[in-house]
TrEMBL record:
Entry keywords, A to Z: ATP-binding, Hydrolase, Nucleotide-binding, Transport
Enzyme Commission number(s): 3.6.3.-
Key word Hydrolase present: yes
Enzyme class: hydrolase
SMART domains, sorted: AAA
Gene Ontology molecular function, alphabetical: ABC-type amino acid transporter activity; ATP binding; ATP hydrolysis activity
Boundaries of every ABC transporter domain copy: 5-239
A Pfam family matched in the record: ABC_tran
Name assigned to this protein: Glutamine ABC transporter, ATP-binding protein GlnQ
Keyword match NADP: no
InterPro entries: AAA+_ATPase, ABC_ATPase_HisP-typ, ABC_transporter-like_ATP-bd, ABC_transporter-like_CS, MetN_ABC_transporter-like, P-loop_NTPase
Organism this protein belongs to: Lactobacillus pasteurii DSM 23907 = CRBIP 24.76
The family this protein is said to belong to: Belongs to the ABC transporter superfamily.
Length: 244
């Protein structure tokens, strides 16, 4: 297996708060890795370091061959190949749905207008929103906006897509549509790292599960092994509260 993200003794502080504690973690190409754990445990901080949205204080973090701890590293080169889907969509309100998807490939990749539009429309069809191409984000539901955000990330043809709690801001009836699109992405073999509260997704779609607590990786297992037989008392306590 080929590593695409490597944490080597990574620490992250916010003032006196030790948010990430000696993280040693390797994510390989093609893996779908779910990160779960209690709120405030550092999951979002961990995933945001993977494309430089959060800096690290010590250690090494290698992403697609680039060392994020090296001041000479051009962060924009990393972000060309590492997409990000946020909790609150982060779509541009002054662009149509189609315009949102076409923007980054045009500016960053200098993709031709004809090719760009064809790819964008194909992606909208994939996420079930081809009939919304010329609408603005404000006219879409939260679930539809999140599916547009996923299509926008896919438009760059990234090697990795990071998902930071992509369903936590959605109404319950919208969640499944977004999870279904994420399953399609996983089936295409794109490396995915997903911070999530959706235990069904973590168990069924992910091929690895990381249980995070107080800035540390407590368990790194196959999903079925984790859910059926957690090794740590903290994981057992966590699961007893969320699975009925």
């Amino acid at each position: 297996m080929t590593p695409i993200i490597e944490f080597q003794h990574v620490d992250k502080y916010y003032g006196k708060l030790h948010a990430l504690k000696d993280i040693n973690l390797t994510i390989n190409e093609g893996e779908v890795v779910s990160i779960i754990g209690p709120s405030g445990s550092g999951k979002s901080t961990l995933i945001r370091t993977m494309n430089g949205l959060e800096s690290i204080n010590s250690g090494r973090l290698i992403v697609n061959g680039y060392d994020l701890a090296d001041n000479k590293t051009n962060i924009n080169k990393i972000r060309k190949n590492v997409g990000m889907v946020f909790q609150h969509f982060n779509l541009y309100e002054n662009y149509t749905v189609l315009g949102n998807i076409k923007l980054a490939p045009r500016v960053v990749l200098h993709r031709s207008e004809e090719e760009n539009e064809a790819i964008a429309m194909d992606l909208l069809k994939k996420v079930g929103l081809e009939n919304k191409a010329h609408m603005y984000p404000r006219n879409l539901s939260g679930g539809q906006q999140q599916r547009v955000a996923i299509a926008r990330s896919l438009a760059m043809k990234p090697k990795v897509i990071l998902f930071d709690e992509p369903t936590s801001a959605l109404d319950p009836e919208m969640i499944q549509d977004v999870l279904d699109v994420m399953k399609l992405v996983a089936e295409e073999g794109i490396t995915m790292v997903v911070v999530t509260h959706e235990m069904g997704f973590a168990r069924e779609v992910g091929n690895r599960l990381i249980f995070f607590e107080q800035g540390r990786v407590l368990e790194d297992r196959k999903p079925d092994e984790f859910f059926d037989n957690p090794e740590t008392d903290r994981a057992k306590e966590f699961l007893s509260k969320i699975i009925h």
